[in-house]
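Hello,

Our lab assistant flagged a job as stuck in the queue for most of the afternoon. It eventually completed. Since we weren't sure the result was trustworthy after the delay, we are filing this so someone can double-check. Below is the sequence as submitted and the structure that was eventually returned. Let us know if re-running is recommended.
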Amino acid sequence: MRYPTIETAQLMRLVQGLISAGECDYTMAVRWQGRGEEFPEDGVAQLAEEVRRELDRIRQEPTRVDPDRVEGEVAGRLYEALGRLPIEVLDDPGFWRYLSIAHFFEYVRWRESGAFEKDYTKFRDYIDGKKPAECVVLRGFLRGRIAAEAGDASLATAVPKATDLWRSHIVRVRTGFSPEIAGSLIREQANRRMVTDELREVAKRLKRMHSNLVLSLYPPDEARVLVSSLRDDQNSDDG
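-- returned structure --
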């Protein structure tokens, strides 16, 4: 597939233009990679426009919105729009830089608004595709993919205020490569919400288990029992 990318060296200039003027001519910075069928841009452009309209509505009542839930809703739609692309496209950080600049900059800036009040070094990772757990568009896509592969797309929004759950304990670690384990952890948190320290300890135990077991091969029932037992063991240790 022939697909658009933006190089890291161009990113700061483009972002500064978007911040100062609300727009920038990014076309000269685009570098096309691959060959064959061209990336189908219409679907992404339509999704980006829908997200912009939703942001306009959100800004009318900003205090009543859970930004993480919005990210979860966008995540599922990102996966629907991009999930069938070849792996070489999805693995290219330049592609995610392109999407962040050309289509989703307003959304990225809204989602990480605190960082955008600071200098470029504080928000670069939210646009650059090199860090999957930080890049807003890429981490959203991964969240949607994990939920879908766990058998229930609604898992992307199942837990309120779940930024730490998704970013620190799923996408950033190997649990993200084990959809059934990730799905069981999400369901556990949705049904019996763990406090921060409890969740962190369960996630830490899962991380250690990845060193000795192929958790990605666990069937749904065994994954559910494993996560539940880790939580019960943690509570027993605390008792």
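-- support follow-up --
The delay was a queue issue, not a problem with the job. The result is valid. The mean pLDDT is 93. The beta strands are 3-6, 30-33.
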